[in-house]
Input
Amino acid sequence: MVGGRDFFARLRRLYLPLAVFVVLGLFPFYWMLITSIKPNRELYSQKIMPLVVHQPTLKHYVDLLTETNFLTWTYNTMLVAVVTTVISVVLGTMIAYPLARLRFPGAAVVAIGVAATYLVPQPLLFIPMADIINRLELGNTLTAVMLTYPTLLIPFSAWLLMGYFKSVPRELEEAARIDGASRWQAMTRIVLPLCTPGLLSAGIFAFTLAQNEFLYALIFLAKSEVRTVPIGVVTELIRGDVFYWGQLMAGALLGSIPVAIIYSFFVDYYVAGLTAGAVKS
Amino acid sequence: MTTRRDFLKVTGGAVAGALVPRGASAAPKAMSVVRESSFIKPFDDYFSKTLLPEYEKLTGIKMSYEATSVGGMLTRLTTIAETKSGPEIAMTGLNQALLFDNSLVDVTDVANGIGKQLGGWHENVLEVVVSKGKWKALPWGNIGQLEVYRTDWFKEVGVTKFPETWEDLLAAGRLLKKKGHPFGFELGHGFGDNHGWLYPLFWSYGGREVDRDGKTVVIDSAETAKALDFCRKFYQETMFEDVLGWTDVNNNKAFFGEQISCTNNASSILVVGKRDFPEIAKVTDHALNPAGPKGRFHVMNAVSHALLTHAPDQAAAKAFLKWLYDDKQLSRWLTSADAYYAPFLHGYDDHPMWKPEPRYLPYKESLKTTRPHTWPGPQGPAASESVAKYVLVDMFAKACRGDATKDVIATAAAQLKQIYKAK
Output
């Protein structure tokens, strides 16, 4: 047990270290919040205490929501993130399952290929990708990023899920087969339910990566009305050497809320998924 | 029943059909222009909401404007040039017109026509837009980097006119730092405010990175050593210590935070000051970079429009550029930019855009002594590599933090020899 019977010992060993982590974890959100409600004069002033807001204002939020397409960008981001996450997790599962559970010639090479694909840096890929997207006449459409993000996310999901599938004892699946289940039934009714934490973990990771992606969105989404949040705010709220800090932080705060909510719901599964394959079963 | 082979035939055919390049012969029903989003929003708005609709009405061609993020233009331009698709007209900054010259249409005829109509071009801009005798881009202006300073604090120490030489500025800076008003000149890895003063300082002491031939590295010189020794003194005796880690945002922030009395910047500080910090704006002014023993210099950041070779109808795209650079349009458009862009056309030397705010006049004046980064070396890929690797900035920053002059020169010389493939 952490701490001890004595309250002060618990305070010292549990609550104080915990408080440090909580403060460190929440400080970026606090900073985003106070920056987003400070008037510009206060933002730049070095003469006043920066950790409190003296004259709060909602001007930056109003400007963000009325002078930019922030709501459209948010809708685009969510749509792209959800679609690409579904595609990536479904296809990632379809790659990971046979590689982890079936024996067939070349499995090892394919598994290495999946990992290698994930490691190819985006700057090497964006020109050929742009060529394909342009030939398909998908430039300036959300379909462009919905098709290209999975090229990063499928190998990642497959790689994560392979480790997870390997951690499920083979005997469970064999018992199902003996009881008359087909390979498909054994996968969908036995293995996948046991791997829910892994699937959620891959899903959250894919969602976050899709939501934050910058380079492909910069190349493929040139018009304001089809942009995602990372490109929209950088294009319209950074001008020359002047950053519109208040609106940028308001955008960052609003943009991080959906992810924070998703994380808070699935945090236990997520952590379990992250540690999958870390120890031998 | 559809076999697997049939399925592959059908889907393969569909994909192959989609991958065939589009035809390149049809007359344009639409054209698009891409630029990095301007610091001056009304400048972008005037283009997209006034000028483009006017041209649409005039010709029936549907015009669209695409603004890319600050710092994202090079990536966008690379994609357009490599894939030969996307907007027909693109912005180029610095020496980009020469980096992509094979993908850009010769616009010499348009440039000559504009020059004839508007009093001729400033000669120095040719270095960054003319490749092998052919114009590859049409500059609309220069984003100048000048001295931005607090007139009230300079007056406090008895300096009523901005110092003419670097030595005089050092003397003023000593007094100002003692009074609690240090200078703040960027020495970190930003994108403009570092080179904005270091190249001019370097050149004004006679320093050069590479010779005009682009093959002889000449940085290891007594002139470079003098510039470095001066800069070390200038940093230690006048500056806010944090500048070694600054990027372009920091000096603006420090200026409005009233931490610094002088910096090198574009006119963005005064523009934002007028909007958000009127008291500071009242006591802010601009001045030319100080002169050194070998003259006075400014760094060039020419922004231009280039026409891409993949344009389905190059004549139509040229016609648009001719129309845009006609005085009737260009004059109104530049006026909307609040003098942020100094045009490289002599016909605009006395343009009404300079009248409302005399404090912007030094930006016009600075054009005469403006040189591109790495000057007098050729403006090719090696020049870009030197700038991207911060060879000059790091040499000065290391000297300022206390490294020996000969060591930092030796490091820079070795880097440049590798970049320029020189012996």
